[in-house]
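Record 1 of the preview.
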Amino acid sequence: MVGKIRKYLELIRFSHTLFAMPFALLAAAMAWFGDGISPTLPFRVWDWVGILVCMVFARAAAMAFNRVVDRKIDALNPRTKNRHLPAGKITTAQAVGFTGVCALGFLAGTCCFLPRNPIPVVFAVPVLLFLFGYSFAKRFTWLVHFWLGGALMLAPIAAWVAIRGEVLLPYLLSGTFAFPTMEYSPLVLALGVAFWTAGFDMIYACMDVEFDQTHRVFSVPGCFGIRAALRLAAVCHAVVVGILACLPWVYPPFGRLWWGGCGVIAILLIYEHSVVDVRDPGKVNVAFFHVNAIISGTLLAVGLGDLFF
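->
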């Protein structure tokens, strides 16, 4: 049983849940504090349990679905032919069943916010469909990297909605567009997540540029070349630093510690681009997995530090 569970966790790269989880927790903490110097909302245990459950199961469902959809492509790609489905370690039926279980787990997690906040339940299925849609995007558009960015940017927005039950909606419906205001903060944070994700996904896709060109798999490296992909990734990451540095403008509780964290993030992103060598998958993995985990963890740490201290 332990071996089977381990196979499923390896199938979805469970450890990579750390990429998006810190942003969801940070947005939830921001929503809980509001724009004051102490929490403006009561602490509800089930809200935080729901956020953790939804994050874990949503990512697991999306990743498992991606493995099912890409199983034939993965079997042809020398870099991915040893993944669980192409190698026969897990059958397609098992992967489909696992996807369904995770999707149901996500839907069940949204019920943690009832009856106070029905919004997560209402939007649960549309969110899942958008996450699943990423798996097909590489068939028709090189903007696939930004689709993945859009998928991860839902994490802070959804966490904010889960805690506060709103994200700009009352202001848009009332015709109030005052700026800056705290209600914009999850969208600003989410945009940073989107560009950050798109940038490092372009770097990762550089390892498959020849395969993508041969098999008509759409990606920025496959359509425009490695040099253009790395440049566009660098532009995306420069935009990330700018966006994150502007967050205190709409979310006043963030200040010097947050800006210091932005400086650290800028250094980490520069390092990430300096070590990338698409001919060496090991270096790409360092940039993609290790540095990015540090980036998301750093932002969570400095954000919580500004809120609590």
